[in-house]
Amino acid sequence: MTELSTKCLIIGAGPAGYTAGIYSSRANLEPIMVEGIQPGGQLTTTTEVENFPGYPEGVTGPKLMEDIRTQALRFGLRTVGGEVTEVDFSKRPFTVKVNGGSTVITADTAIIATGASARYLGLPDEERFKGMGVSACATCDGFFFRNRPVAVVGGGDTACEEALYLAGLASKVYLIVRRDQLRASKYMQTRVLENPKITVLFNTNTVSLFGNDILEGAKLVSNRGTEEENTFDIAVDGFFLAIGHSPNTEVFKPYVQLDEQGYIVTEGKSTATNVEGVFAAGDVADPSYRQAVSAAGMGCRAALDAERFLLMQQ
To answer: Which pLDDT score, from 0 to 100, does residue 66 have?
Structure first.
């Protein structure tokens, strides 16, 4: 077992976590970061990022995260591989176990930046066809469906973005929307509705997926009329989920206050949680904006809040 200690522990390695690493390192808090099972977070599954300041020509998600990580390491951030499996926030210093206790870290403050994970519909067939046609990341797996028909589930900006991305690769894209309208921005709606490769199926839900060893299609039902009258099949080789995310907060539930959706509740305009010395930043505490730049800004605030908290304890 490896034992470590720090003034500031950062849990999670997305834009929020690495930015917190930059600021806490520069404040001489000697931070340690547990990078989790996906260092870099969701941006590592994104091809082009065009709206992050400082990259006028755009940048790939993995490159952006590599740059932020390199900057954090430059100032002295220490990283630990693996996933936090247990925490004790009942007293300070806090105790955190990584990978079941192979590494134990004690910390005077903690910044939770574990992000959120993609949601699935909950169909039994989703698990059966994961990696064999079902995916929650079009930019990760779209390449495998060049010139083949695919479907995207969702009606928000993310679903529209993924449908447009796939339209550049696939032969046809079905956008399955359970409501009678898209929730995406007007600009995204226009782009989707005007794209000849995209067919939007409004008022439609997925009943099941089918195929032998790999996905061959989806059974859908219209919300209008009887189920028997409005059930139909579409032939698709790829089925992409874009229906939102669930915050990665399970391990913190015994201590940290969560809202009804499982997001961490912060106090006022600060990043402080209900536990003194524990702060939250990024998508794990942000169900509204969920942008890389806002996550990075929140990571900055969390590091500053942690620094001020420690100063007040002296």
So the answer is: 96
Looking at domain 120-241, what is its CATH homologous superfamily? FAD/NAD(P)-binding domain (3.50.50.60)
Residue found under tokens 């992050």: 52
In this structure, which amino acid lies at residue 228? Answer: E
Please determine whether the domains at 2-117+245-313 and 120-241 fall in the same fold group of CATH.
yes
pLDDT at residue 228 in the model: 61
| Contact indicator for 100, 84 with CB cutoff of 8 Å | no
For the stretch 103-154, pLDDT in tens is 999 999 999 999 998 888 999 888 899 878 998 878 767 888 999 999 999 9
Q: How far apart are CA 49 and CA 208, in angstroms?
A: 33
Annotated active-site positions, please?
137, 140-141
Sign (positive/negative) of CA torsion 11, 16, 19, 23?
negative
Residue with tokens 């600060």: 270
Domain spans of the chain? 2-117+245-313, 120-241
Q: What class is the 2-117+245-313 domain?
A: alpha beta
What pLDDT does residue 305 have? 98
Does residue 154 come out as left (phi exceeding 0), alpha (psi in the -120 to 50 range) or beta? Answer: left
